[in-house]
Amino acid sequence: MSAADDNSQANEPASNREFEHVSVMVDEVVSVLSEIPPGVIVDATLGGGGHTEALLAASAEVSILGLDRDEAAIAAAGDRLAPHGERVRLCHTRFDGITDAVRSIGVDRISGCLFDLGVSSPQLDHADRGFSFRNDGPLDMRMDRSGGVTAADLVNGADERQLIAILRRNGDERHAPRIARALVAARPITTTRQLAEIVRDAIPAAARRTGGHPARKTFQAIRIEVNDELEILEDALRQTLALLAPDGRCAVLAYHSGEDRIVKRVFRDAAGEGPRPRHDLPAPPGSEATVSLLWRGAKKPSNDEIERNPRAQAARFRAVQKLGAAA
Q1: What is the b/e burial string over 102-133, where b = at least 16 CB atoms within 10 angstroms of the residue's CB?
Q2: Are 112 and 201 part of one and the same domain?
Q3: Interval 225-252: pLDDT, tens
């Protein structure tokens, strides 16, 4: 955030300033979710409320149910969205709790849903959250700090084989065995700086010169594991598609290849395009399409947006629409 931006926010509530986040592909999200029936949109990853604020401004015929597992995000978004009154309701929950959250407000069907996956800028920028290899802080990485396993628990408790699997599965880390061996040898590890330095030293010098910070993939992999991000995503998406009203839409911004593969598979399955035992045989029962893909492949941010917000570069955007016959 620039100095000018910081000064302009001097009169904002503290929780807003502490959870300042630049939302990604806002215009594209609003465009997709503006062509839906009147009703409730679920922002399944509320964050600082930027997407929600834009969606409320774009249409007076929708209200928002915002979900987030991070209590700091809920507090900041509550301040930011307070002027919208009863058009916004917030719920502290993981996004795989979407069905219960929707039912808790007396609704059976939703008109739209947005998932903006991954970690937010405030979580990265605040050292005490333990997400960033650039800031020294406690090795935490929990999005919901009310309980659960921390990154320190994982790094110090998993055996070498488990660590290798986590680094490969969640981070596509080619040097996983070297890193895992170094982590086990260096225990106990309690801070983000320790972790970043151990990973850096474990990677061959030639490999450190390309691909950004050498600890980036390790931090990503551990964060995903601590928060069960990949494990809960498929279930949350399938719940969401079942909740959509006819012509309702689900849109997803993914930033990691593992996330995007899950989104792609779930959307293609729901569109009746999942794999078949043999291509010349009819689709098995239960594989009929319930949604249509709004476009093929994944859309990416514009070069102008990436220049303004470099963290948007990894974003991949997909969306589907519920078929009317599926009501």
Answers
A1: beeeebebbbbbbbbbbbbbbbbbbbebbbbb
A2: no
A3: 999 999 999 999 999 999 999 999 999 9
